[in-house]
Amino acid sequence: MPAKISVVENILSANDQIAQRNRAAFDRAGVFAVNIMASPGAGKTTFILKTLEVLQGRLRLGVIEGDVATSLDAEKVAAAGLPAVQINTGGDCHLDAVMLANALPALPLDQLDLVLIENVGNLICPASFALGVHLNVLIASIPEGDDKPYKYPGTYCGVQALIMSKIDLLPYVSFDVDYFRRGVEILNPGVVTFPVSAKTGEGMQAWADWLTQKVRRHAVPTKITADMTSTT
Amino acid sequence: MHELPVTQSVLEICLRHAERANARQITKINLVIGKLSSIVDDSVQFYWELIARGTIAEKAVLNFERVPVEMSCLDCGALFEPSDESFACPRCLSLRVKVTKGDEFRVSSIEIE
Q1: Smallest CA–CA separation between A159 and chain B, in Å?
Q2: What pLDDT digit, counting tens, does each position of B32-72 carry?
Q3: Do B107 and A185 touch (CB under 8 A)?
Q4: What residues of chain B lie within 8 A of the CB of A125, using their CB?
Q5: Which of chain A's residues have a Cβ under 8 Å away from the Cβ of B87?
Q6: What residues of chain B lie within 8 A of the CB of A94, using their CB?
């Protein structure tokens, strides 16, 4: 007998469930996880390396690098003496929750406060796949142009912090900051924005301070609970 | 593009629901995809033919219901479809708007025998 069955299930619900498990794993270890998205060439790795440099000594850091191929980025982080894991997506245009879940055992989560996850360079697909992080960040680099919020609304909508990077190039390229910010404001009203240059270091301190505060606020309740459990 | 994992997920959802209903065959799958979900129908169809082979969903027709983007104006309350160049409210020209439709991405129903 032919019949119609109502399903109403989100297509990526399996991914979302695994993302929740990732998040629980981070929470158990008292780790704050950040997903960093941007287009190819926006300077994600340089920005991450600079962030690590500013935060070193303040927080215990780890990095997960997502790329279609090669381990070049993870090697750069490892060269800075920090735990780094490379995920090669083998052609996929984004990280998903399963890839992250498979990479997590390679990091000593119990000994970390903050994990930065560099997503695959892409302004479209990563936005559709939840990873289970506490903070999604988008890096918009000045040379990409001021029209990107209008062209890639999905990614701009879904982040909780925006980095405007390579601001040292503002005098040399035509980038209308007001036009850019208007686009951002429509898609993501009030999103916290950090104009930075990883090259000159401008703005990096403000970003690092803000992030440190987020990490500390997240870690405190978890660690208190852990201490109470161990004393009882 | 990420159509392969998406298509696998669609198949998994459909088979699970069909099995629960003791279906012999899935004849049609209704998908609701907002325009902001960057999915290419043809690619999903292409992968579908490869991965559904040998399952009870092999002969299912994929029906894509595309949902246009709808925004609402936070100042005057107007609902409108934005143009490619501008998200401004066409009634009061406000730029304080938010996306209300167009990011759907789900299997709404399946038809079985």
Answers
A1: 15
A2: 999 887 778 888 999 999 999 999 999 999 999 999 999 99
A3: no
A4: 1-2, 38
A5: 150, 183, 186-187
A6: 2
- 3-class DSSP assignment, residue A96: coil
Distance CA B23, CA A230 (A): 52
The model's pLDDT over B8-30, given as tens digits with 9 standing for 90+, comes to 999 999 999 999 999 999 999 99
pLDDT tens, position by position, A49-58? 999 999 999 9
- CA-based nearest residue to A91, from A132, A122, A118: A122
**Least confident piece of the model among A99-103, A120-124, A178-182, B1-5:** B1-5
DSSP A127-196: GGS----SEEEEEEEGGG-TTHHHH-HHHHHT-SEEEEE-GGGTTTS---HHHHHHHHHHHSTT-EEEE-
Which of A4, A17, A186, A191 to probe by mutation at the B interface, max B CB count within 10 Å? A186
Q: Considering only CB atoms, which chain B residues are within 8 Å of A14?
A: 9, 12
- ipTM, interface predicted TM-score of the complex: 0.77
Is the Cβ pair B27, A153 closer than 8 Å? no
CB atoms closer than 10 angstroms to residue A71: 15
Report whether pLDDT(A217) > 50.
yes
Backbone angles phi, psi at B19, to 5 degrees: -65, -45
CA B10 to chain centre: 10
Q: Which chain A residue lies closest to B103 (C-alpha atoms)?
A: A154
B99: confidence class by pLDDT, cuts 50, 70, 90: confident
Question: Does the model's pTM come out above 0.90?
Answer: no
- Of A86, A76, A83, A192, nearest in space to A136 by CA: A192
- Joined together, the tokens standing for residue A197 give 């240059």
